[in-house]
Amino acid sequence: MNVKKENLIRSSLLVISVFILIYPFLFKAAFYQHIMIMVFMYGLLAVSWDLMGGYANMFSFGHSAFFGIGAYTSTVMLIHWGINPWIGMIVGGCLSGIVGVLISYPTSKLRGHYFAIATLAFLFVTKILLENWRFVGAAQGLSVPMVKESSLLYFQFHGSKIPYYYIMLGLLVLGVVLTKWVIRSRIGYYLRALRESPEVAQSLGINTAKYRLIAIALSAFLAAISGTFYAQYVLYIDPPSAISLHISVQVVLISVFGGTGTINGPLLGTAILIPLINLIGAWLGGAGRGIAFMVFGAVIVVMCLIQPDGLIKYFEGWKLSNRRENEAA
Predict the structure, then answer these.
(1) Residue 237 in 3-state DSSP?
(2) Burial letters for 91-128: b for 16+ Cβ neighbours within 10 Å, e otherwise?
(3) Dihedral through CA 195, CA 201, CA 205, CA 208, nearest 10?
(4) pLDDT tens digits, the chain, 329 residues: what are they?
(5) Which of 39, 55, 65, 182 has its CB 3.0 to 4.6 Å from that of 126, i.e. a possible disulfide?
């Protein structure tokens, strides 16, 4: 029976993978393709946040600042110096990681709500700075220069969302693979030790400040990549859209709903909540956005009451019981 269950899981994962790959050809409407693109983008954001908030136990409300840094860096480099957006994506990721380290170094020893408040202040300071900096468009924002024809080199595709779909899917896969590699490395073990007890980790000789900063840098890098994609996808950015408390809170809630401290948890939360918000908003029209977030909040509250550790814990509990049955057999 257990072998059948394992085969069923593997078959289900294979079916899901194939479905994701052929999805844009099954659902040709631009709206449904857009929903999945947002699922991939927020999935990468949630995974990047969980590396810092779930594993290193640094609860941040300023994650969209890193997202915005990535979006602005690639766009400014393209507008002012004609630098390719793909190069801008890497530069933006590195710059975001450096900024994350510089800002977080004096706050790396803060814990709990103190660290959360510090990241919130960083978010607002970054937003105010960009709103008043004319070189980056100030409050007016920036429009990404359009190319005449679709171009992979310039990260623009006219008349179809399918290229964006597969690019964001590829970025998500790369982000997940990188995160899994980090979590399974020595860095990951140190981060889990920090999450469980910083005092015990420090008594064992772990440089807690160093590994917190590593987690922040990696998290900021992945968030900035999402930001660059967003800028090239919508072709316009301004401080409210790229650096927003709304984005930060949404990423946190998605991760909490799915289950922090796991890679699959944030992905599961994104796959459920992002389509829910978009579909309710589309069905109910202009008033639907507020109702969608009311439903969003209600779902998270119910999940916190039923399973505070997130939805992924149900699957982990099922796997654990299945393993025990195999051992007993």
Answers:
(1) strand
(2) bbbbbbbebbbebbeebbebeeeebbebbbebbeebbe
(3) 30
(4) 455 666 676 787 888 899 999 999 999 999 999 999 999 999 999 999 999 888 888 888 889 999 999 999 999 999 999 999 999 999 999 999 999 999 877 776 677 778 888 889 999 999 999 999 999 999 899 999 888 888 888 899 988 899 999 999 999 999 999 999 999 998 888 888 888 777 777 787 888 888 888 999 999 999 999 999 999 999 999 999 999 888 998 999 899 899 888 888 999 999 999 998 888 878 876 656 677 778 778 888 888 788 777 888 776 655 555 555 554 45
(5) 65
DSSP state of 53: I
Kindly list the distances between the CA atom of residue 208 and the CA atoms of 57, 98, 105, 152, 199, in Å, as whole numbers in the listed order. 11, 18, 11, 42, 9
User: What's the token pair of residue 114?
Assistant: 């103190």
Prediction pTM value: 0.91
User: Looking at this protein, which amino acid is placed at residue 116?
Assistant: A
